[in-house]
Give the backbone structure.
Amino acid sequence: MGKLTEVFFRIGNTTFGGGYITMVMLGRDLVGKRGWMKQDDYDLAFSLARITPGTNIIAFCAAVGSLLRGWRGAFLAVMAVTLPSALMAVLLQQGFESWRSHPYALSAIGVTSAAVTGMMWSTVWMLARPYIGGSSLRDKWVRTTRAVLLLGGSCGAAWLGVTPVPIILVAMVVGFLWLDEDRPTGDKQ
Amino acid sequence: MNLLVLYLLMLKASITSFTGLGSLPMIRQDFVVDRHLITDRQLTTAVVAGRTSPGPYGIYLVCVAYLVAGVPGAIAGMLAVITPAFLVIPLMRWIGARAETPRIRSSIRALMLASAGLLLYASIPLSHETITGALTLIAAIACFLALVFTRIETMWLIFAAAVLGLLAQAVRALP
């Protein structure tokens, strides 16, 4: 339980750029590094967090905490991520105006923001990577086409002004009808 | 302001949104337009603080609640932010039992790809805003490559980027 809290505390409060990046970094640690979860369990927690009302990353922490250690795990994971970052946000809010006029702070914030952009690109790649390629040549072709269509279609729909919930619901229907039965690429489970 | 009312207003905004900043229009309506408890400028500062700090963007609600009612308000705000998250647990129990079904699993995978597409779209304006020259472009690409090809933790990348920014300013400030 202590280790679980430590992982959520460390990753949740040192990852900048919003919920998606934090969820992917937690997945990289919990699935890839520690092997505490299977890729499919991670995907389930991620997906349900996306359709749970409220802030996705907090629902994701509750889902993963509950998968690993029940209600207590869920509560600890949520508190480990929200409490310190809430405190930090309130402190930042108070100091923000004076920082904004300081050239050194401005420069540091500028390069840090660019690094966060790079993190967002890597998050896109890490989210899509398990579903690109396959175990046979035919699977490789079909899965990659499916991935490109779903990813590109969602991006295009958002560009046309469609809100995220209908996009996600349509993608789930497409997934339900167009089966992907191969194992996630790189899944060692 | 009564803390219970504050909690319920925050909860209403939180539970009817599906992204961190999805609650913003409702918060603005309730706290800026209808009740005049905060100004637009304060709301913007709260959003920027929420985006600049680590963790979820939705944490800006705590900043708003702090502006309205101080530390007790911030606690009420935080409770309102985390309450809806626990809805995922019964959902997990119900869908989790069916998650091994190939069609449900395939649906979930499609959702992951759609999420990647949505994030790609969200990254476009952010890229325009943050990549303002060679240094920021190098920082973004280096960060992307480091995360894709190594197991380095993001806090070290953020730290390195901040140091790079400070060094760049020091060089610019040289006479």
In short: The mean pLDDT of chain B is 85. Residues 102-130 of chain B form the longest helix (29 residues).
